[in-house]
Amino acid sequence: MVHAVLFDLDDTLFDHEGSARAALGAVRDCHPCFAHMTFGDLESAHTRLLEELHREVMAGRLDLDAARQERFRRLFVAAGVAPDAVMSARAAAAYRERYLAARRLVPGASALVAAVKARARVAVVSNNLRDEQEDKLRHLGLTPYVDELVVSGDTGVAKPDPAIFRIALERLALAPSAVVMLGDSWDADVSGARAAGIRAIWFNRRGASAPDPAVLEVRSLEPVDRVTRLLFDADRN
Q1: Is the pLDDT of residue 95 over 50?
Q2: Could you tell me the pTM of the whole model?
Q3: Does residue 206 contact residue 193 with C-beta atoms inside 8 Å?
Q4: Distance between CA 190 and CA 10 in Å, rounded?
């Protein structure tokens, strides 16, 4: 029987990709140097730099503000511009402002978490800093539903390391068989959870090919009743 559901946050409940696209578009509109790049190429470069520098933040080698400024410094360089510190800082600030303004839930997320909370406990397991994720949960109206927030910034371990899932289990005082994980990243969420003995469901929003077709997947959080049934079907493997 399922007594708790673990959720990833970014791009599972919170539409990080949508916010990032809106914010990057706003920066692109203000800087002609990006005009020769397609938005897809700009987005790919930005995502790569974001992931690289996020690892530096998680390792404690950069703070968030410094990482954002360095991200845009490198992005300007990739566009053929040598920016000064003021230019990079302004672009980072503009991105952050638009990102915050564009924050929204993935369709169906609020109703799904509420439906789960009515039947079981809810935990969020995320590779990020606690302050950042707590702020998202408050903004999105999810805080009242979340029993445990387990973040790599606190624990010192990150998905897909099964240790972060074991920490979640310890805080919930539950065995792996009593928990299910839902997340969008195959490597971080599905593989990590399974390594900890937890059943996982893949939130495959983009319709990618599954590395293991035996794993259940959903491509939308709606209809909520269907996703809820899958989460609580303890006989699935």
Answers
A1: yes
A2: 0.94
A3: no
A4: 14
Do 138 and 218 belong to one domain?
yes
User: Domain check: are 125 and 225 in the same one?
Assistant: yes
User: Contact, 71 vs 92, CB < 8 A?
Assistant: yes
Within 8 A by CB and 6+ apart from 197, the residues are 176, 177
| Percent of the chain residues topping a pLDDT of 70 | 98
Which of 75, 101, 127 is at the close of a domain? Answer: 101
Report pLDDT digits (tens) over 30-64. 999 999 999 999 999 999 999 999 999 999 999 99
DSSP string, 147-215: SEEEEHHHHS--TTSHHHHHHHHHHHT--GGGEEEEES-IIIIIIHHHHTT-EEEEE-TT-PPPSSTTS
Among 101, 117, 144, give the residue marking a domain's end: 101
- Which contacts (CB < 8 Å, 24+ apart) does range 96-101 have? 96/23, 96/68, 97/23, 98/22, 98/23, 98/26, 98/27, 99/19, 99/20, 99/22, 99/23, 100/19, 101/22
Full domain range(s) for residue 195: 4-15+104-231
* Residue of 117, 199, 123 lying closest to 155 (CA atoms): 123
Q: Please, where are the H alpha helices in 79-128?
A: 85-101, 109-117
Any domain includes 236: no
User: Is 234 a residue whose pLDDT tops 60?
Assistant: no
Q: Cα-atom radius of gyration of the chain, to the nearest Å?
A: 19
Closest CA to 145 of 182, 119, 107: 119
Tell me, yes or no, whether 189 and 173 share the same domain: yes
